[in-house]
Amino acid sequence: xxxxxxxxxxxxxxxxxxxxxxxxxxxxxxxxxxxxxxxxxxxxxxxxxxxxxxxxxxxxxxxxxxxxxxxxxxxxxxxxxxxxxxxxxxxxxxxxxxxxxxxxxxxxxxxxxxxxxxxxxxxxxxxxxxxxxxxxxxxxxxxxxxxxxxxxxxxxxxxxxxxxxxxxxxxxxxxxxxxxxxxxxxxxxxxxxxxxxxxxxxxxxxxxxxxxxxxxxxxxxxxxxxxxxxxxxxxxxxxxxxxxxxxxxxxxxxxxxxxxxxxxxxxxxxxxxxxxxxxxxxxxxxxxxxxxxx
Length: 294
Hints:
Blueprint: E1 19-21, E2 32-36, H1 52-66, E3 72-81, E4 90-98, E5 103-113, E6 119-131, E7 156-157, E8 178-183, E9 192-197, H2 209-217, H3 220-223, E10 232-236, E11 238-243, E12 252-260, E13 265-274, E14 277-290
Antiparallel strand pairs: 1-2, 2-4, 3-6, 3-11, 4-5, 5-6, 7-8, 8-9, 9-12, 10-14, 11-14, 12-13, 13-14
Helix pairs in contact: 1-2
Domain Acyl-CoA thioesterase-like N-terminal HotDog: 42-129
InterPro entries: ACOT8-like_C, Acyl-CoA_hotdog, HotDog_dom_sf, TesB_ACOT8-like_N
Pfam families: 4HBT_3, 4HBT_3C
């Protein structure tokens, strides 16, 4: 599938949020219902959502379900994209496969309303949560903080052509709602990029730092690639993030690199940072497909 890139398209900040709460007729009380806005649209197709907003929405749903009173923190989140996340009404539900006082697992699913009125599960997120404690005496991270903070760098909205980024994604859909600042990276030939979403995840709500971070981490797959979208597509099927600390603040630094295999698939790996330093790592499975739009 060739990317729906239009460099002249105005950015999507005209929308108030990525999702608007809604209450369709016949709504099941076991779900929350949302209407995705144009700010969620993918660069790969104007008919589907970018992976970032659905990931953020599912993390927000899990976070709201557990609260913070149990003394546990999200340590690993895996988001599986089970099919196209469409722009019709979305509904989400949360469940807990494994409760526990020290270790627990929570999960959430996102369904999309099809034109025929049926629901299809399009995405599922599963998170491990661990009891927090004081381990500062042995704290160690593999990398120091990124050399420059976003406040010290030129910032822009969307992904225009910048040094080291192979694709000028412009300001299409979701990309037009993300502010970025780039600097030299440590992984491969691509830059490290600070990102933050400029819209609230859900209209009328304040987005948590955790949900905000997961709204942009999916972008690592695009940042780490050095491919021409006129020749190849590299859509990811999942995103797994291991955290060593809770994200702090709206900015997330992503230092990404994609490994392409010779059998039609690969993987994107990224080191993640926030204002306090190294935050964790992400990994994404990537389907490598020759583009039909040559």
